[in-house]
Design brief:
Blueprint (H helix, E strand, L loop, with lengths): L1 E10 L2 E11 L4 E5 L6 H9 L6 E6 L2 E5 L2 E2 L7 E4 L11 H6 L6 H14 L15 H13 L5 E5 L7 H17 L3 E6 L2 H7 L2 E6 L2 E6 L1 H6 L4 H6 L3 E9 L2 E4 L2 E4 L9 E7 L3 E5 L7 E8 L3 E9 L4 E9 L9 E6 L4 E5 L2
Parallel strand pairs: 3-9, 3-10, 7-8, 8-9
Antiparallel strand pairs: 1-2, 1-4, 4-5, 5-6, 10-11, 12-13, 12-15, 13-14, 15-21, 16-20, 17-18, 17-20, 18-19
Helix pairs in contact: 3-4, 4-5
Bound molecules: adenosine-5'-diphosphate (ADP).
């Protein structure tokens, strides 16, 4: 449905994105994920036809729509666009907002508008005005408006940014169902990894204007190819070490070095908070002390001090539910190797 081939772009000579290739297939939700300034919005604007590439090509539904020497205008692309602020017209009712850009007019347009309002479950609000609606309802009007012309691809720019966290969970659930039910291909932008995992069939992680890893959510979470990606998908501890005989020694066990690492290479071990296992152990030789333990709701965060001989490591562990670890408790910690990753230190 949508394909970027080796796309490069710059703002007034300053590169924004470089050599980006990506595809979004029919009915697929693909997310661009990365920190602020990595080029997510620029890629969305390139897809929409609001920016022109310096190099490469963009294809939409079998047609070449952008290149360095040509650009199909946004309104000819059959692309839906949903902005962060929804951009609803305040003086138009919900149904008038939804049918605004439709090629058909009159009762045909109204019929299509009511159908799409029904798809997002707000047909009863057709005659209301935007200021009478909650944030979640406005969000659904914006989605209905973007879906009304039956676009082959919908572009979503941080679609939940304006919603509080409870509402966001409900709305994104509904949004996912609507996208899947209508088989609309979607390219979404977010800086929130959990949101990306919830919504996406595939995630494209960007860093400094280039793709650093692409995959299904589970691949990115379980097999990150860099400390950057691992850190983006969850809170992590970082422990530094040095490769010796193919291993990196730590106070809580040895880790295998990567095949390409040589003796003496510095290494970082990235350990997710939830990968640390804690067992109470007051006997001599217990290798950590609880500094603090805080209940965060569904989980508790445990601050641990691990003596290293000369110094101490400060680690965080996330354990489910209410914890029973008082300050000063001696514990023994171990690491779930599935959630600990070794990378060359940088
Ligand atoms: P993101 O959406 O990931 O936050 P953007 O695509 O907005 O990133 O920005 C990518 C890079 O391009 C950043 O370095 C940003 O400062 C720059 N940039 C974005 N918009 C403009 C603009 N209109 N003029 C000049 N530079 C811009």
């Amino acid at each position: 449905m949508l394909e970027f081939r080796n796309i490069a772009h710059a703002y007034n000579g300053t590169p924004s994105v470089n050599d980006i290739s990506l595809t979004v297939n029919e009915g697929e939700v693909v997310t661009l994920l990365g920190p602020s300034g990595c080029g997510k919005t620029t890629l969305l604007r390139l897809a929409a036809g609001l920016e022109q590439p310096l190099g490469g090509e963009i294809w939409l539904d079998g047609n070449r729509v952008s290149g360095p020497e040509m650009m199909m205008p946004p309104e000819k692309r059959g692309v839906g666009f949903m902005f962060q602020d929804y951009a609803l017209f305040p003086h138009l009712s919900v149904i008038e907002n939804v049918v605004f850009g439709l090629p058909e007019k009159g009762s045909l347009a109204t019929r299509r508008g009511l159908d799409v309002l029904a798809e997002v479950n707000i047909e009863t609000l057709a005659d209301a005005y935007p200021h009478e609606l909650s944030g979640g309802q406005q969000q659904r009007v914006a989605l209905a408006r973007a879906l009304a012309p039956k676009p082959s691809v919908i572009l979503l720019d941080e679609p939940y940014a304006g919603l509080d966290s409870r509402l966001r969970e409900r709305i994104r659930d509904q949004m996912l169902h609507v996208l899947k039910a209508t088989k609309t291909a979607a390219l979404m932008v977010t800086h929130d990894a959990e949101e990306a995992m919830f919504m996406s069939d595939r995630i494209i992680v960007l860093r400094d204007g280039t793709v650093t890893q692409t995959g299904r959510p589970v691949n990115l979470y379980c097999q990150p190819n860099s400390a950057f990606v691992a850190e983006f998908f969850g809170e992590v501890n970082r422990v530094e070490g040095v490769v010796r005989d193919g291993q990196i020694e730590t106070p809580f066990g040895n880790f295998d070095a990567r095949a390409e690492m040589k003796d003496g290479d510095p290494a970082s071990i990235v350990i997710r908070y939830e990968a640390l296992r804690i067992e109470p152990d007051s006997s001599v030789g217990a290798n950590a002390v609880v500094m603090e333990a805080r209940l965060l709701g569904r989980a508790s965060l445990i601050h641990l001090s691990v003596p290293t001989g000369t110094d101490e490591l400060h680690l965080h562990a996330r354990v489910p539910g209410l914890n029973s670890f008082g300050e000063g408790t001696q514990v023994r910690i171990s690491v779930d190797a599935e959630q600990a990753f070794v990378f060359a230190a940088n």
